[in-house]
Amino acid sequence: MSSSTYAGSRAANRPSILDPARPIRGLTIAFCLWKVLVFLVIVSCPGLGYDTSTSHLYEYQDPNSSDVISEDIEDLLLTVPRKFVRWDSIYFLHIAQQGYVFEQEWAFGYGYTQALAYLTSVLQNLTGLGGGVIIAIEAILLSHIAHYLSVLALYRLSVNVFGNDSTTQRLICLLSTALHIICPAGAFLSAPYGESLFSFLNITGFYLYSSAYLDNKNGKRLSGDFKTLLSAVLFSAATTVRSNGILSGILFAYDAFLQLRRVVSQSMSLNACAHLLVAIVSGCIIALGLILPQYIAHTAYCGNDPHSRPWCQWYVPSIYGWVQSHYWYVIF
């Protein structure tokens, strides 16, 4: 055997993390290694840094919760979560713990904070654990789990788009997904932010939407319509986490336009009308993700007095627009 052949044989048999033959295993290992690296970088950062407001988050104690954390681990539980809690995450955790106390807090995703509040309530009922530290740990775990699930969803989406019949196709799917693991968001996908949950919901929605397209293409109409509606539900949930999730509705607006043109230009068929109806209903479901938090805020601040706050008098009342422009000086 020649040296070149022997070297090629060794290269072929050498274990690889990103092995197209075992994509889930490779992605899981890569994900864990990356998260360990990010964790070590964050934890090794000295002190609280310039954002010392994190310390105020732990001053609040819920009078209804019992403190069952022993003093010997309390310092550790305080130190590690504080490294992850910076900037917007302080608001997220405060809202999850106490609700929307201040008007400017409505700039932060309703869906994410309510998910944290629900998880906190369940854990507290089961174990009695509560307080800012526990919420921070829950949020960190939620970010890691959601990021990992979004990686798996992106791989399945890539398979739907690129296929996996050849080694090249499988490698493209694997590499495109691996890039999502080490994406520039970095620590934001590990910290108590809504990015990980939004990523999971949005990417999974696109995966279901692409699966619905393939089902419709193969004549599986009922399955395709069901997946289309389910993808709309996920897009709607993503919109409650981050309002720019509403842009996913463009897909369904385009679908509705195509189906409407088909109904008008061709003979009106039951199949075309059904697809048009599914597209319209899906778009309405996504819109609920933006409208529902607005309605809750409008009920809380405006009520029977439309002059209570300036934004209540707008033609289209929007607490998001008001908070961003008035408190954060961001003009849309």
UniProtKB/TrEMBL annotation:
Its EC number is 2.4.1.-. The chain crosses the membrane at residues 27-50, 133-159, 171-191, 228-254, 274-292. It is a multi-pass membrane protein. It is found in: Endoplasmic reticulum membrane. InterPro entries: PIG-V/Gpi18 (IPR007315). GO terms for molecular function: alpha-1,6-mannosyltransferase activity; GPI mannosyltransferase activity. Pathway: Glycolipid biosynthesis; glycosylphosphatidylinositol-anchor biosynthesis. The keyword RNA-binding does not apply. Its main location: endoplasmic reticulum. One of its GO terms (cellular component) is endoplasmic reticulum membrane. It comes from the Eukaryota. GO terms for biological process: GPI anchor biosynthetic process. It is an enzyme of class 2 (transferase). Keywords: Endoplasmic reticulum, Glycosyltransferase, GPI-anchor biosynthesis, Membrane, Transferase, Transmembrane, Transmembrane helix. Mannosyltransferase involved in glycosylphosphatidylinositol-anchor biosynthesis. Belongs to the PIGV family. This is GPI mannosyltransferase 2. The lineage of its organism: Eukaryota, Fungi, Dikarya, Ascomycota, Pezizomycotina.
